[in-house]
Amino acid sequence: MAKSNKQVIQEFDDAVNMTSKELRDWLQTDESKSVGQSDGGGESMGHESGRKIVEILSKNKPDYTDEDLDHMRRVVSYVHRHQSQKPSGDVKNSNWRYSLLNWGHDPLK
User: pTM of the entire structure?
Assistant: First the structure.
């Protein structure tokens, strides 16, 4: 059974624990640009996702489009999947954390 839009929004709000400003500032860093998969050496999928998340966070809930909701589903799925792959040791300066930050989730919060 498909999740309702209300459930998707709630899960997105739970998964994305960075503010729009925090994420926008993070996306400007070299660390942000250094991780993730990209097609042909361009912008990584995670970095592009981060830009979309910033756009979504700037909207009011009634203004969410179907595209926004689809992206929210992808974000929730990625964050949950990636969290389960946490490496051992200090993750503060790890590619694992940097990837999650690109998707709007800071695992150290």
Answer: 0.93
